[in-house]
# Entry
Amino acid sequence: MRDSAIPNSPCCWILFPQYFYDHPYNLGDEEIMSGLYKVIQKIVLLEDQEKIDPHINIYKKAGGLFGFDIAIRNRKKKHSG
# Structure
């Protein structure tokens, strides 16, 4: 069961690193990924959607820039809102 402080929308779950990385059991959650892709389809131009998709797996695995110590330390400090 999710904490009441955690965003209710499935797509928000993946967009907030402070929640997403603290709950790795949600990494393969179909509801979360489906919500994310629905939002991408609605708000991102078709040609840019192709650029985003490869970066999702990097984000999920905390690779690339997301894996740097500074990025990991600051996950709970930054907020999208």
Summary: Residues 62 and 68 are 8 Å apart (CA to CA). The longest helix spans residues 46-60.
